[in-house]
């Protein structure tokens, strides 16, 4: 009986040691990071740095050569229409200069006529856009149009109205320039009062101190806040991918604002990057739909242009994609906790996620798979 107990205890100890050794050295699976395949809205986004720009801005320049006496204006001051911003004591004109002044008056009058023609065209466009918006507003409550389409029509009507207001401001500026030129006709030496052609905000003061300036010298810049544009320089190869009216998200500090692409410039220019590489860049101009008062002129922002949008896409992290020859694949973790290489078709790719086809919702994929991961490897 005593010997039997010794053998029993020895057997139990041996089994315990064997189980411990097996547990210590048995393969437990490769530790990996995983994520679930989800079905959600996916947006392919182009991210670039941009700058804000006042929707309209005017550069006031010296109409004649003379002694400039600036008014007490600083950047940020609000200026009403017609307010004097400074005085120019014009120098005496010789016969040649007098003939130049006559020519300038004729050119200024032609500029006024051209500005008025643009104003009339802008008024027609704004009126028609306003009528379209009114018709759409009546259809909205009865379900005749989607909320997204309604917002787009409203935004278009607002844009046409602001374009008309900008055209009116250009007419006013042209009239002031013409009147300033006419004021020099009767005789030389008469002071020229430089007035604000329209109400606005002082964006820049070029001549802060009294001095003699030549005709055409920039004096100050007037503009409007509240509805700024966003100007973004993109690579020319990306320009054809931006659809008309594309949505843009503008990140300024902690605010994310919505904007619509109004124009993609048709001409590229060569820009040298920070790495010293020459790139062909194209300007994209977008109008901010709603802007806070803190967003001013020439502010740096991050622009996220939506190139394509898929409402019901299968989305995986971009880190889960691996090359499979000329195609793409992901490692799917099956019920046995083994990694299975699964071919997928890449629909669109973003910074953090990608839209794919070939997997199912709820499947778990390996993110950033290690090089040792192979087909059938046990993972945990």
Task: Describe the structure concisely for a colleague.
With 380 residues, this protein is of the alpha+beta class.
Which structural traits does this protein have?
single chain; 380 residues; alpha+beta; conserved putative lor/sdh protein from methanococcus maripaludis s2 fold; Elongation Factor Tu (Ef-tu), domain 3; OB fold (Dihydrolipoamide Acetyltransferase, E2P); 3 domains; six-stranded antiparallel β-barrel; four-stranded antiparallel beta sheet; 3 helices; 38% strand; elongated
Any overview of this molecule?
The chain is an alpha+beta fold and 380 residues long. Helix content is 28%, strand content 38%. The chain has 3 helices and 21 strands. The strands form 3 sheets. Strands 2-11-15-13-12-16 form a 6-stranded antiparallel β-barrel. A 4-stranded antiparallel β-sheet has the order 3-10-8-5, with no helix packed on it. Strand 17 and strand 18 form a beta hairpin. Helix 2 runs antiparallel to helix 3. The longest helix is centred in the first third of the chain and has 45 residues. The chain is elongated. The two termini are 48 Å apart.
CATH fold node name of the largest domain: OB fold (Dihydrolipoamide Acetyltransferase, E2P)
What is the top-level CATH class of the largest domain?
Mainly Beta
CATH homologous superfamily name of the largest domain? RNA polymerase II/Efflux pump adaptor protein, barrel-sandwich hybrid domain
Tally of structural domains: 3
In the CATH hierarchy, the architecture of the largest domain is: Beta Barrel
Structural class: alpha+beta
H/I helix tally = 3
Order of helices and strands: HEEEEEEHHEEEEEEEEEEEEEEE
């Amino acid at each position: 009986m005593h010997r039997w107990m010794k053998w029993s205890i020895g057997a139990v100890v041996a089994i315990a040691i064997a189980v411990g050794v097996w547990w210590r050295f048995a393969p437990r699976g490769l530790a990996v990071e995983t994520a679930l395949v989800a079905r959600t809205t996916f947006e392919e986004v182009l991210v670039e740095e941009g700058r804000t720009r006042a929707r309209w801005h005017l550069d006031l320049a010296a109409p004649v050569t003379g002694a400039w006496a600036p008014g007490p204006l600083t950047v940020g001051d609000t200026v009403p229409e017609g307010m004097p911003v400074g005085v120019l004591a014009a120098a005496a004109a010789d016969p040649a200069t007098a003939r130049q002044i006559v020519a300038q008056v004729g050119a200024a009058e032609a500029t006024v006529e051209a500005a008025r023609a643009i104003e009339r065209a802008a008024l027609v466009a704004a009126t028609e856009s306003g009528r379209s918006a009114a018709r759409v507003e009546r259809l909205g409550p009865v379900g005749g149009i989607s909320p997204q389409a309604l917002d787009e029509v409203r935004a278009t009507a607002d844009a046409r109205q602001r374009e008309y207001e900008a055209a009116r401001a250009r007419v006013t500026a042209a009239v002031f320039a013409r009147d300033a030129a006419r004021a020099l006709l009767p005789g030389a030496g008469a002071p020229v009062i430089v007035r604000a052609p329209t109400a606005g905000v002082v964006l820049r003061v070029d001549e802060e101190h009294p001095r003699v300036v030549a005709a055409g010298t920039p004096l100050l810049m007037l503009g409007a806040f509240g509805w700024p544009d966003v100007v973004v320089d993109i690579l020319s190869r990306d320009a054809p991918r931006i659809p008309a009216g594309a949505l843009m998200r503008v990140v300024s500090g902690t605010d994310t604002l919505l904007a619509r692409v109004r124009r993609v410039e048709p001409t590229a220019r060569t820009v040298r990057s920070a790495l010293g590489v020459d790139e062909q860049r194209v300007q994209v101009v977008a109008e901010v739909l709603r802007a806070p008062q803190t967003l001013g002129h020439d502010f740096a922002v991050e622009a996220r242009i939506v190139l394509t949008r898929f409402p019901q896409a299968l989305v995986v992290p971009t880190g889960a994609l691996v090359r499979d020859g000329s195609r793409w694949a992901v490692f799917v973790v099956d019920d046995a906790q083994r990694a299975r290489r699964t071919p997928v078709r890449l629909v669109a790719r973003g910074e953090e996620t990608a839209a794919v086809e070939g997997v199912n919702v709820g499947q778990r994929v390996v993110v950033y798979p290690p090089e040792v991961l192979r087909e059938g490897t046990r993972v945990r």
